[in-house]
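Lecture notes, part 5. Sequence design as translation. It can be helpful to think of inverse folding as translation between two languages: the language of shapes and the language of residues. The source text, in structure tokens, appears below.
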């Protein structure tokens, strides 16, 4: 099978992974979510990729079609595009990351297959890989290409599997599937040249999955917020507050993925207790729990709860600054398995945090 030679930004060939003049090297990033998706992994990987491009790296991202579209119609994005100096290649997938367990599993497996084919075709055009744990199977691609071609990969752990699936009740502890998945995860971790963890408790968990001689490959790098994009916006200058009727209200805001790991139901209960006051509870985002939360709100006849879709990245500062109190939450039992990275954006916007956490 012959591969089409990679090209530089100006269209000049760059054979065998040799970086173009003035570039540090050629890397590929593998992640299910990327610009314009505002789920936390998509936002952080977008910021990471564009910043690496600014620092002189030649970056190509392999990602899926947007599952969580914003008001700009992310579903209509082209399969190939450039954003912030980063080449984006969207591979075909089946199922959906926003569906049920079967649909999400199909989406993850088909993404794995599509990325494997795409990387094989582009195998002369990159020197190394940055891989995430979303979807959980994609680390196998890094392991395969590390063995086949000797290309190293750096693994960024956002969620720990199979513990994450077990904590959600999808898998039974000690089951054949859970044991097999744990073995695959340990192999992916062991094959990585560097394993990046984003939390202290997560680091402890990952250490238990690796032999002591490989602990030196683990690096703790907390997530971040780009201060050039997220900053405090005063209420009198905040168009988001005006557009959504927030003036004169005390806004308790949860912004981000409305997922199964987020214990958001207490906010609806609080809204019921505070009906008839100036307090407004606002949910900004999408996810598996959104319909359930909307049903709870409708059943209680609450008019002090507002649901909004994900906001575009260029309005993130306004959206986060609109909160008088921002909520960061994680279901009990998820400590170390996942990290509520939305806290960094809240801090950058200068808002106080209400934490519902272990």
């Amino acid at each position: 099978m012959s591969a089409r030679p990679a090209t530089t930004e100006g269209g000049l060939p760059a054979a065998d992974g040799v970086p173009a003049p003035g570039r540090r090297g050629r890397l590929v990033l593998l992640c299910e979510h990327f610009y314009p998706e505002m789920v936390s992994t998509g936002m952080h990987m977008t910021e990471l990729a564009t910043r690496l491009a600014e620092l002189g790296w030649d970056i190509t991202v392999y990602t899926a079609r947007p599952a969580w579209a914003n008001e700009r119609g992310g579903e209509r994005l082209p399969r190939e595009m450039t954003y912030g100096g980063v080449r984006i290649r969207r591979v075909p997938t089946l199922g959906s990351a926003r569906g049920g367990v079967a649909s999400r599993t199909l989406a993850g497996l088909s993404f794995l297959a599509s990325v494997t084919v795409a990387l094989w075709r582009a195998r002369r055009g990159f020197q190394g890989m940055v891989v995430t744990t979303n979807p959980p199977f994609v680390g196998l691609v890094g392991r395969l290409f590390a063995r086949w071609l000797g290309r190293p990969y750096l693994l960024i752990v956002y969620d720990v599997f199979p513990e994450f699936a077990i904590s959600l009740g999808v898998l039974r502890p000690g089951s054949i599937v859970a044991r097999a998945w744990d073995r695959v995860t340990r192999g992916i971790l062991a094959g990585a040249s560097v394993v990046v963890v984003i939390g202290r408790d997560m680091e402890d968990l990952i250490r238990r999955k690796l032999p002591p001689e490989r602990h030196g490959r683990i690096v703790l790098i907390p997530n971040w917020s780009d201060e050039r994009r997220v900053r405090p916006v005063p209420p009198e200058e905040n168009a988001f507050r005006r557009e959504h009727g927030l003036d004169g209200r005390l806004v308790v805001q949860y912004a981000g993925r409305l997922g199964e790991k987020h214990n958001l139901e207490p906010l609806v209960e609080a809204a019921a207790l505070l009906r008839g006051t100036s307090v407004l509870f606002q949910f900004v985002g999408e996810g598996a729990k959104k319909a359930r939360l909307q049903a709870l709100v409708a059943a209680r006849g609450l008019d002090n709860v507002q649901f909004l879709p994900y906001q575009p990245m260029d309005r993130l500062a306004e959206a986060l600054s609109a909160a008088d109190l921002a909520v960061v939450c994680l279901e009990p039992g998820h400590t170390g398995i996942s990290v509520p990275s939305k806290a960094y954006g809240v801090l950058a916007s200068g808002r106080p945090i209400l934490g519902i956490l272990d």
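The translated text above is only one of many valid answers, since several sequences can fold into similar shapes. The two ends are 52 Å apart (CA to CA).
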